[in-house]
Amino acid sequence: MEEYMALIEGLAAQGNVRAQKTAWKWGVRKQVWNYLEDNDLADFPRPVHHRIPNFKGSATAGYRLSELPEFKAAQVVKVNPDTPQKSVRVATLQAGKTLYAPQPRLRTGFFSRIKPGTVPKSKFNFAATAGGHEATFR
User: Fold this and answer.
1) Which residues lie below 8 Å from residue 89, measured CB to CB, with a gap of 6+?
2) Of 20, 32, 47, 67, whose Cβ has the fewest other Cβ atoms within 10 Å?
3) 51 vs 88: CA distance, rounded Å
4) Vertex 88, ends 86 and 94: CA angle to 5°?
5) Mean pLDDT, residues 21-25 taken together
6) What pLDDT score was predicted for residue 19?
């Protein structure tokens, strides 16, 4: 990945607009990843480089999201399958909303869908994981 991004940065320096956008995002991502690691703000899985990073407080942030009027008004919520967003998936199930989560690497389609009432409350934490989606919807 580093070699590829060096190539992109070179193209960006030559004025390639698409490469400039990619190089800009790459630079910001590296700064955020390094900051999280250097300041011990990251949670498992580590290291956070090359992924959507899990951070200390992500669970609290996810549950706070469920307090927003936009979340409360929604009937359907799409949440990425990454670890730091698990609490948002659980909150969606707890609120009785339909949950859509993209399938990692499109293993079994584009999205998993969990409709209200299809998973017992005692299984919400498990259903909100990639393994739980797979086991629930085989």
Assistant:
1) 79, 99, 101, 128
2) 67
3) 18
4) 105
5) 85
6) 85
Residue with tokens 């948002």: 88
Q: What is the three-class DSSP state of 112?
A: strand
Q: Which two tokens stand for residue 133?
A: 């989606």
Task: Provide the whole-model pTM.
Answer: 0.77
If DSSP codes are grouped into helix, strand and coil, which group holds residue 116?
coil
pLDDT category at 133 given cuts 50, 70, 90 is low
Residue with tokens 């967003």: 85
Pick the closest to residue 89 from 81, 118, 105, 102 (CA basis). 81
Model pLDDT, residue 1 = 72
**Chain mean position to CA 79:** 7
* DSSP-assigned letters across all residues of 68-83: SHHHHH-SEEE---SG
The residue whose two tokens read 């940065």 is: 9
Q: Is 67 a residue whose pLDDT tops 60? A: yes
Distances (CA, A) of 65 to 11, 123, 133: 39, 21, 22
